[in-house]
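notes to self, project folder thing:

trying the whole complex as one job this time. last attempt i did each chain seperately and stitching them together was a nightmare. two parts in total, labels are on each line so i dont mix them up again. if this works i'll redo the older ones the same way
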Amino acid sequence: MADKPSAVIAQPAVTVMERAPAGPARPRSQAWLPFAAAAVLLAAWQILAQVFSLPVYIAPTPVQVARTLIIELPMLLRNFVPTAVESLVGFVVGNTIAIVVAVVFVHSKRLEAALYPIAVFVNTIPILAKAPILVLIFGLGMTSKVVIAAFICFFPTLANMVRGLTSVNPQSLELMRVLSASKSEIFWKLRVPSSLPFLFSALKIASTTSVLGAIVGEWIGADLGLGALIIEATHNFRSPLLYATVFVSSAWAVVFFAVVSFAERRIVTWKQGEVS
Amino acid sequence: MSTLGTAPAVRLEGATVRFTSERGSVTALDNVALQIPPGGFISLLGPSGCGKSTLLRLVADLVPPTLGTVTVLGGPPETARLNRELGFVFQDATLLPWRSALENVRLPLEVGPKKRGRAGSRSPEDLLRLVGLGGRENALPHELSGGMRQRVAIARALVSEPRILLMDEPFGALDEITRDTLNEELLRIWQETGTTILFVTHSIPEAVFLSQYILVLATNPGRVRELVECGLPYPRPLSVRETPEFIRIASHLRALLQTC
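result (full assembly):
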């Protein structure tokens, strides 16, 4: 036999399709997986608590927590409102200031050199140490909680925004120069859109940490709020209420995160890192 | 002095560019004299580091000459840049990823001191059709292939109706089949618009296929080696690359590049 390479030239198939060809098999959604896993874990918890007949104040069963959640719902909601407002306002204030400071830093390397190390230093102070100081300054009302939530949002957004505004493709800058674009045109048409993916990464972090900030602020001293409720329930050994409160605050943080993620998907429609 | 005619679109006299850093200075271009007639198609060919891109950036007012003078359309390069007489196409398409193809083409109309808000005789839509992208106006850059992105970049460079088009290895990152197609289309666009084109390339066949003249640059320091005329008649079909004249010029260039 000859050792010549051979190839079969494919003829187009002439079979008439009777049905529309099935598209590529759609991957089955796996969204139910975490819910199934959670259900299994909750069931295991319920069974273990009953088998070992643990006292309620040490570890309430999921059923007890759920019952408390329903019975105490009006009270939980009353405490939820201030925490939600504090975290929302803190989120807006902290991120707005961070964005403004980032813009200032990008325009003045001197100010950045002078102030950025201080921002890093303040950021290294644990929030639990900052919170009492801020409560002393801003009082026991909602203001101090807003300030704490704003503080906790501030640094990640500042760091990301500075990086976003400066991480512009150098060739895009050359293009803008060939087009004789002004500094403000470069800022609005190039730097700001380039920074949006970075900004949203920071906002997603801030959406959950701002809730954390509000709750920590309420621990230090507040009459109302999920943080105050956590402290009260713990001191009175009302474990089902404690768990229910924790559930409400986590649910709020998840909703907050989901809203920011949704906004990100609507606004950042281009592929990240795609520059050419 | 390499002379290509009278009333040049671009004139370089004793143009020298030196980049100085802490580790010393590099002469990217040394004493270059050159005249390019309006409406010409000139390729810049040479080994890496011969200053091809620097020469283009000199004309585009992105790099100032250390010595000598650069005249673009009878004035300093800055005036040509501010008057929107220059279009620049980079090796990467350099599209803004959040703008659609059409919005990217429109960008030059939205920025700069001479922004007009609207196009001249050719609208952005017309230009997208001219580069073969009619119907893809709303596609985002990441939805387009590399060749299509480069077509958008060419349309963008043409939207302010520049009298000089500067192209820095625009097809260097594309596969050969796409490159052939775009080479043909670039010649068609050049003949339709009458723009002067300065075209940097690493490819000998590409340079011979496109250009009226090929400026061969030598390296270390970057300087003019020879100006090679390429008299093949236009329009040039891709098959022109099999003619003896094409092969003669290409092999002359290849021999020349070995001495650069």
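what i see at first glance: Residues 95-161 of chain B form one domain.
need to look closer tmrw
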